[in-house]
């Protein structure tokens, strides 16, 4: 996800703690993102 968005991994974790960014869920110790949620979030960002 970080590579796809071109941002550091730490930013994704920061966003999750602040309730920002695309919706994420944990599988074990790792964050996972549904593709549909990511594209919906990106659409919201470009529309804003």
Total number of domains: 1
Query: How many DSSP helices?
Result: 3
Shape: globular
User: Any low-confidence stretches, pLDDT <50, length ≥5?
Assistant: none
Number of strands: 2
Please list the strands of the largest sheet in the order they lie side by side.
1-2
Order of helices and strands: HHEEH
Structural class: alpha+beta
The first-to-last residue Cα distance is: 21 Å
Overall pLDDT level: 93
Q: Strand percentage, roughly? A: 5-15%
Rg of Cα set: 11 Å
Largest sheet: 2 strands, antiparallel
Percentage of residues in helical conformation: 55-70%
Domain Helix-turn-helix: 2-45
Pfam family, one: HTH_17
Protein name: Helix-turn-helix domain-containing protein
Quick structural summary:
This protein is α+β, with helices and mostly antiparallel strands and 48 residues long. The protein has three helices and two strands, in the order H-H-E-E-H.
Topology:
Layout lengths: L1 H4 L3 H10 L6 E3 L2 E3 L2 H13 L1
Antiparallel strand pairs: 1-2
Q: Can you walk me through this structure?
A:
- With 48 residues, this protein is α+β, with helices and mostly antiparallel strands.
- It has one domain (2-47).
- 56% of the residues lie in helices and 12% in strands.
- It is globular, with a radius of gyration of 11 Å.
- The model has no long low-confidence stretch (mean pLDDT 93).
Descriptive tags:
48 residues; alpha+beta; two-stranded antiparallel sheet; 3 helices; globular; DNA-bd_dom_put_sf; WH-like_DNA-bd_sf; Helix-turn-helix domain-containing protein; HTH_17
